[in-house]
Amino acid sequence: xxxxxxxxAIILSTTVLxxxxxxxxxxxxxxxxxxxxxxxxxxxxxxxxxxGQKNLVNEITRDELVGDTKRxxxxxxxxxxxxxxxxxxxxxxxxxxxxxTLNGENKVIFLNPKNSSEEYFIETGWASGGxxxxxxxxxxxxxxxxxxxTLTPNNPVTIEWDNGxxxxxxxxxxxDEKFLFKITQGIKNNSNKSxxxxxxxxxxxxxxPEGMQIYILHEGFLGVFGEELVEEDYDDIEKEKFxxxxxxxxxxxxxxxxxxxxxxxxxxxxxAEFVAKNEKYRANYIIKNPKILNPGNSIxxxxxxxxxxxxxxxxxxxxxxxKIEKFDLAIDWGWFYFFTKPLxxxxxxxxxxxxxxxxxxxxxxxxxxxxxxxxANYSFKSMAxxxxxxxxxxxxxxxxxxxxxxxxxEMMALYKRxxxxxxxxxxxxxxxxPFFFAIYKxxxxxxxxxxxxxxxxxxxxxxxxxxxxxxxFGLIPWDPPTFLMIGAWPILMGLSMxxxxxxxxxxxxxxxxxxxMFFPLFLTIILAPFPSGLVVYWTVxxxxxIAQQWxxxxxxKVKTV
Length: 561
Hints:
With about 550 residues, this protein is of the alpha+beta class. It is built from 13 helices and 20 strands. The chain has helices at about 1-25, 60-70, 235-240, 310-320, 335-355, 355-370, 375-390, 390-400, 405-420, 425-445, 490-505, 510-525, 530-555, and strands at about 70-75, 80-85, 90-100, 105-110, 120-130, 145, 150, 155-160, 165-175, 180-190, 195-205, 220-225, 230, 240-245, 250-255, 260-265, 270-275, 280-285, 290-295, 300-310. Helix 5 (about 335-355) crosses helix 10, helix 11 (about 490-505) packs antiparallel against helix 12 (about 510-525) and helix 11 (about 490-505) packs parallel to helix 13 (about 530-555).
């Protein structure tokens, strides 16, 4: 009885975890206003940027906003768009290699101009220190292009602005082959005065993104400060802003597949903030120690800004090449990082070998079964013996139904005599749990899985099975509601689980037996919305388990007394 309760507890715990994963699984320096530049710093070692503009309510389209300002054209193999010369902000980026929908033609639009309905942009600049008011470039400042006006990997662009008071501001913008903007901003002092400046950078996003995936992965603010990974939800920052001081790290805003990030120049202590105000979300930093600009001299500051599709190889490459602390954590690998990420590389290898992620999942499932074959064999042999011992266990239960202590003693004696370990039957479930969640997480968060087909009706392994039993898998011209979308693969998974269950010992307790009987149906409904790649894994794993159990049971003979 105890062993059955343990097994039941494990299975129900697994169910709870799955249920939780489905239904339950960022600091900021605010933008300078047009009216005010930088407020006096009460603490010169900890400067801040003043409040930004309030939201403007308008009906101006994205195309109109892009067309209304002078711009620098931007393009490489992965992105295209432009940089606005009004404010010198990166605010128009489209991912060339990714479509919004599987069957659509529109490419993913990521960054949008200021004051658009979904504004999302990156800007850099200087804050001033001291008591003297300085005319600084702001959001409405029009910069001038010096020379080349098209930004490509082989053609950097330099822009300039003269404040008319002896200070000349410049920005040299470079673009690599992927998703990195390198910005070198400088100031030349032609006046007879000395000044203090604090370089800053910030990401601004208007409103939360549509279709956010909650609980399963993190979407919102994130950063690494020192050795600490910080993840903050939009809702949390709405309640209270986040501020931290650090001497190394990076910060940004992440979506499921896309990322904006800014990396301060190494060797400088900075204050970082995540802030929500006026329905705008900002992630930014400001260098804490001022740069002194004396007459006739110049100062510079370097900023790395990422507008990236979160491709694993690319993110890892930047982390290694630029020595960015834990930049690979921009992809939310979850609690099983040490397991999930290596598993991705294995599956990715088989994908490149076969050309199909579905086949790669099947191969990795078979390899997992092979690795744990000896352990699973021991477990299944024990379960087979338990099934054969069922009549004797029922007899003992009837014989000692009024004496629980005696029943337990006789049951333990039976296990010892037949050399059966009832707990070992739980091992197959325990073995599957980390793989289940690792594969689930990997399929859910990795961009490489997006829009990858298997065969037949499965066109995207990262999405649910598009068929439904309630319209006979498309034979009836009716689109069922979402909660009735129980596809062919989830049903096949449920059937395989039912067959597997029949090979296991039946609990003598009628209530437990009924719970076990409905468990495949329950799990079929729970797993129906999961990525079809995960359901394929679970189904194949069940089939391999059935085959292994069947062979073992045919060869297992137990005599009882």
